[in-house]
Write a structure and sequence with these properties.
mainly alpha; 7 helices
């Protein structure tokens, strides 16, 4: 590690990091074949847009934004790596796994995942209705991660 290096994730509160770790553990157990099921849009588009604007305000422009962005990168990289690994090696040779997701499904999945990660980080700062709008299909997994404290 470089002297003076500060992990951007350390810019998040201890509670946010703990929730995020629990959410990451659950996410890592999710079979990549199920990713398309999580690509569904959250509820009403106008309400969701309003909630997104609120989340951007809460995150702000300070050091916490760096932590949020670092978390998003880690989750996105894990998801892409998991989906790619599922299509390689013996799975591909034996045709035991197929990639039925379209490019659009994959983009929607990553966008949905990113909203879930941000919501888990900001859990204590947004109300239940806003969380529900942002989480969509991730609500159960995120709620378990938040309640496990």
């Amino acid at each position: 590690m470089t002297p003076g290096f500060v992990d951007p994730l350390d810019r998040l509160s201890a509670g946010s990091r703990a929730r995020l770790d629990r959410f990451a553990t659950a996410f890592q157990l999710l079979d990549s074949d199920l990713y398309t099921a999580f690509a569904a849009s959250s509820h009403d588009a106008d309400e969701r847009l309003s909630a997104l604007e609120r989340v951007q305000e809460i995150i702000g422009q300070g050091s916490r934004r760096e932590g949020v962005l670092a978390a998003l990168v880690e989750f996105r990289e894990f998801a892409v790596r998991s989906a790619t690994e599922a299509l390689s090696g013996s799975n591909a040779a034996l045709l035991t796994r197929t990639n039925v997701a379209t490019a659009e499904d994959r983009v929607r999945f990553l966008a949905s995942l990113e909203l879930a990660v941000v919501t888990v980080i900001l859990w204590d700062e947004i109300d239940a209705e806003e969380r529900s709008q942002l989480l969509g299909p991730w609500e159960e997994m995120a709620t378990r991660a938040a309640q496990a404290a």
